């Protein structure tokens, strides 16, 4: 049985152009390490996979006297424990595997589907009797899947070139690349022992497949394909084999006789040399830092004037700490501010690519990562008061870290120019509701409401007022799928330029001088009456704005939209009339064609109207709102 994978630390092996650092290695099919299927064994076997009396791994039933048992069969054998292909220091790992196999057809002219070497995101058996037992019955992946197929049955509908080919499949049964095995002098279903080698270089992002009848590894690959496996797999990977027989008298015996597998970090000699040099430099820098810390102990009581970036980061800063940028850096990240994605009267937003180091100082050579970011720019007065307001905003931004609030990367202020850098997201709620051709599904709308509710509950605990809760400040990260509509994956609250942290014991924040300006920014109907009249902002004023967002999500109408066949100008007044006439269902967005419960939509409309109570003391709290919205996300509230 297989023991614990060999972990070889700092063992360098000469391998042509690249250095190699082996991290995991195992072998099956020898006297010392035989194939072994069991719950606690080294192999997880599903379907018809079994270990025969001769010690080989079979992917189909091995009783050759009962051909009827071969109809619609499939077997899969994977290593019991997943292999971590991601390294914290060097990124994705390379791998190399060598195995021998035999395909013996029961009928000379009718071999089965074939077998495949598979890499899966989890231990899941595919459809029996087709697609090698690795994909679903329609040929699509069930989990993240990569397969190198040795195909002995031609399926014309999926583009098979013949009934004797080697192919590479990514995420579906349709091969991205394939080649006739006879070009290598091999008949896959000829009953001979075939050697196969599969190598993946993470450095060059190249997958290579080699086959041969003897055990000498060919110099040139039989198949070669460029692919970044790190884009396919998001976590650990299970590796192994799968094979199947179909519904006709096309039966084969699939045997794996020997298998060895190895993962390793791969790097060019220059990279390794730079790593060694950086290690030496790092040790030198650490010595200097320690000496500096030792010398500075005597000066801890002296006053010290820290720059803005020194005093804004919270003690519990994440691995990526927000920092201060220069305008030259931001100009470089945004390609000279050429990619503008949004512009209003007060702000301009540009898309850029930011390269930041993640992790501690010692990982500086290997911990760099690229992020798509949005840079928000605006102009303010070049005064001490404006500088204090900007610093207060940055203090608030650096203190909020939540999954439903856009990640904050840093800031810049030079003269009257202000910039904040946050994560880039593909769209916003305003566009999705009022401008997009594809309508948000009901499930997506409820999820958006819940995500922003979570964000506001988090701000409530931190005693932070947002003061700009509106559709354009709710960003969506999603993809457009023609068959399913616009699939929202995440909603996040953005734009904290007007956010304010309440002091100890404070329940309101008063700023009457700017109420009119904010009213225009929030769009008429989204600002609480007490904020417009007296400049009073509180948790309840954020609740009011959130209620306005709920109504817009359910109705698909802006707060200031003209209502057809109605004397009302404001959306909320029109909805109150509908409520009094007991016909709130007429206000539901007619573009909602996905299955949903009308009662749930009406419940959300009533909840939104409760949030818009003129008396702020009669509005529900964010916690109450969260519980009500959460109840609508339960499976029983959705039509199957």
List keywords for this structure.
3 domains, Jelly Rolls, globular, Phosphorylase Kinase, domain 1, 7-stranded antiparallel sheet, 23% helix, alpha+beta, 31 strands, disordered N terminus, 640 residues, 9-stranded antiparallel sheet, Transferase(Phosphotransferase), domain 1, 12 helices
Write the layout of secondary structure elements.
Elements lengths: L11 E4 L2 E11 L14 E5 L2 E2 L5 E2 L14 E7 L6 E2 L3 E2 L1 E12 L8 E7 L24 E7 L13 E6 L6 E4 L13 E8 L4 E7 L10 E4 L11 E8 L6 E16 L1 H28 L11 H4 L11 E2 L2 H7 L6 E4 L4 E10 L10 E12 L4 H16 L8 E7 L2 E7 L3 E2 H6 L7 H20 L2 E2 L8 E8 L3 E9 L6 E2 L6 E3 L4 H8 L6 H6 L1 E3 H17 L15 H10 L17 H14 L10 H11 L8
Parallel strand pairs: 19-23
Antiparallel strand pairs: 1-2, 2-18, 3-6, 4-5, 5-18, 6-17, 7-8, 9-14, 9-18, 10-11, 10-17, 11-12, 12-13, 14-15, 15-16, 20-21, 21-22, 22-24, 23-24, 25-27, 26-29, 27-28, 30-31
Helix pairs in contact: 6-9, 6-12, 9-11
Quick structural overview:
The protein is of the alpha+beta class and 640 residues long.
